Amino acid sequence: MSPPFLPDDVVREILLRLPWHDDPSCLVRATLVCKHWRGLVTDPGFLRRVRPPVFGVFLNNPPADAHFVPAAGCVQQPCISSLLRPAPSRGWFVRDSRRGLVLLSNRARFLVWDPATDDQVAVPKPPALCDCFFHGLLADALLRRPTTTDDDDERSSSSSFRVAVALIEDGVAAAAVYSSDTGAWATARPAPAAGLRFLWMEKPGAVVGEAAHWLLSGCRVLKLQHAGGGDQHQQDEAPALSVLEPGNAPAVDDDNVQLMRTHDGALGLIAMTGLALRRWTLATTAREGGMSWWTPCDNSTIRFDESILGPRRGHRRYPGRFRDEKLSLASALALLDCREAPAWGRIVGVDEDGATVFLWRMYSIFMLRLQPTPTTPRVSKICDGYFVLKPRWKAVYPYSCFFLGGNIVT
Amino acid sequence: MAAPESGDGNNGAARMVTLISSDNTRFEVEAAAASLSQTLQLTILDGGGGGGDGIPLPNVDSATLSKVLEYCIKHAPAAANGGAPNATAVDRAELERFDNEFVNIDQSVLYSLIMAAHNLEIEGLQSLVAKKVADMIKGKSPMEIRRTLGFPDPTPEEQAEMNAHMLEYGWAYE
Where in the numbering of this chain does the F-box domain appear (chain A) (predicted)? Predict the structure, then answer.
């Protein structure tokens, strides 16, 4: 029995067990083995079982244009040329990146951009909220319209999207949602809450289901629920704004915390304190009258203890350049003097699945892959001191995709 | 002792079934072990394979079948415990060690196993052999993958097509 005659099911199971999460190029190589394999790998049904890994991050570095920084192990190549010039012109900032789309904004409007096709859709700012943007009170999330569950055209279909914006003025929140289907903004029903404050202006919110979330002070959450599921009601129902007030507030450093979607699709919180990353998920208990609590996740704490760190030394100097080079956790940590700061690094980004975390430290950006084993993340440095992320701009926007069989899969 | 489910009133734990390989060798195994195969499970639940009848397996030769049954007998107790929630770490480590040893075999045997696992629908074994093949080809170039898996040499047409793709996606080789 010769392997080219292995049943397709068997070949698929083999390909799914390749380490594509760490090395996306292994699937690309599989497409080159033979025509038949190429067909199997680029089949939408197969690709749905493969989560595209983080390909790199966008970041704003004013006054320069927005950058794209490829993740370690991802070499630059022709397909990606559009990624290298994300900003159509000066004055555009990346605001968010989800499901292969990127949201940019300038003073006058938004731009939704698909790097895979280089399609750009301009979105005017919502008229009612327009004035406030100049105060910088803007937080936006991008929602790609969830497609029906088992349709084969899920991946190839629509670049239909929504843009959600929220702002807080005098402690009161306002929000609106733009839908590419209607081409119009819908203003949200306001939340009856005052005294609100965004924790982070620049960090993207988390999208869970049909709702966008932004972190407020005190680990509260501003939730913008888009008009609920039923398509026929979509036109009538306005988006609704609410404030989630969990019963507890984990002790976190306001500068070092971010909302995320956990891998099982719940709203989560990730924070760095000292040499540990901690994760919570927002859980609702019935007995407390529906009150929600920040509950530590399984394997909630990813601790960088001293046994990993090795013997403490004085101030170590960076070796020259090691861009695109995979570092072991030990060597990455040994480069840093952990005594000088309360947190090892600052959380600047989390990917859509909460599987990859980006930390900023000493002018460098580190990528931690928490999959497949959260407790022993794989650390790599993706960007090394070529520019300074200004405090106001300490956020990165992970972009996930595959390049397969001539197509970009997001 | 967790008794394996048995469709009839027989003495479940001790119930044996007979499997007959393509070269007419008869194997007698516990029903619980043979039931790891989704294909056999239904037949066994219907009371088949007992006594002198035996279940013929025309696609599996005796060498492969004995290997498959070795796997099934080892994994049957854990499977009977419903994924073994109460298995100790030692048990799991032992199974893992067994699995590693088990697939450390000649490539031709591996292919027979792949086909047998596929035909008999033994989920754990399918996953194990697929992982083994993935380990064999990971990090290799398309040409090396072809050689590793014993593909015939590409036809000039195929070669031209591969070259064209290489030009376009050469970056994937780092």
Answer: 6-50
* Average pLDDT of the segment spanning A380-396: 66
Q: Whats the size of chain A, residue-wise? A: 410
Whether A150 is in a domain gets the answer yes
Residue A1 is nearest to which of B112, B139, B140, comparing CB atoms? B112
Q: Which residues of B touch A (CB under 8 A)?
A: 111-112, 114-115, 118, 126-127, 130-131, 133-134, 137-142, 145-146, 149-152, 154, 158, 161-162, 165-166, 168-169, 171-174
The domain total for chain A is 1
Q: Whole-prediction pTM value?
A: 0.66
The CATH number that applies at residue A392 is 2.120.10
Please classify residue A60 by burial: count the beta carbons closer than 10 Å to its beta carbon, then call 0-12 exposed, 13-18 middle and 19+ buried: buried
Specify the length of chain B in residues: 174
Between A9, A15, A25, which is nearest B172 by CB? A25
For B78-128, how does the pLDDT look when each residue is reduced to its tens digit (9 = 90+)? 777 655 455 667 777 888 889 888 988 888 888 889 999 998 999 889 999
Query: What does the block give as tokens for A334?
Result: 């040994």
User: Quick check: A34 and B169 CB within 8 A?
Assistant: no
Q: Which of A10-24, A149-163, A177-191, A388-402 is least confident?
A: A149-163
The range of the structural domain enclosing residue A160 comes to 51-409
Correct CATH for B12-138 of 3.10.290.10, 1.20.81.30, 3.30.750.24, 3.30.710.10: 3.30.710.10
Parallel/antiparallel/unpaired status of strands A257-261 and A356-361: unpaired
Lowest mean pLDDT among A289-293, A313-317, A327-331, A334-338: A313-317
